[in-house]
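Here comes an entry:

___
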Amino acid sequence: MPNSEFEFINGLLSKAGSLAKGAGDDAFVFGKYLISADMSVEGTHFRLDLSTPSQAVEKCLLSNFSDINAMGGTSCAILFSVCMNKTWSKKIRDEIAETTVNVCKKHNVRILGGDTTGGSSGVFSITVFGNAKGKILLRNAAKAGDDVWLAGSPSGSDMGTITVNPPLNLGKELAKIKGIGACIDTSDSIAESLQHISEKSKVRLEVEKMEKAILQSAEDFCLLFTARESARGSILKLTKKFPISKIGKAKKGSGIFLSGKKIEVKGWQHFE
């Protein structure tokens, strides 16, 4: 069995060969659409003794919208599938349905269909479709000399986050700016997202003035991106609408460094 989800994914993609061409970012570029899929499993991603059904399903929806956001796009439609825990009451099932409709209505996302079943645990499975009118933001576009930026409000909760607030609509604004490099959603931790950009773009990323706990925490759904120095002015204008801060620099080399020291990346591991 693979040691991590990324070993499993990379193994699958390598076996698929040309069938998986273009995979490996937060969403897949398919014609004019961006497509992403995600699951939220009871006992792993949410517990109804710690959150309401409404909070649990909203978190799953927003995390999917965040993936499209990270590619510079806007979510426009979903396929929503759910496995209802057979112990859940009609009230819980109704709350899940009502919240799904309300969240989609708020973000102008259509519900195209999906599937339902029942089981011993609850599962939300969402496939989201988005579109991008500007540049598609990828993980392999960072260059040595880029600034490293973080948008959103990391909590350092490490899987304890119930309410999430990703900076939706920022991605499409970044896509309009000349000089934007790589971009990624930080759901698996800021450190792991830095590593993905480092590996895909073949750069060394140096971060300053950030607590290690924040760097390693997961499920904050911030946006991590790089940009040429020439884009600073345009990015700073966006701070009027979004919480954005410059946290580091991309340089020649490899690896992730915090205040000059190489760090071991410990993001969320689904297989442990």
The chain has a mean pLDDT of 90.
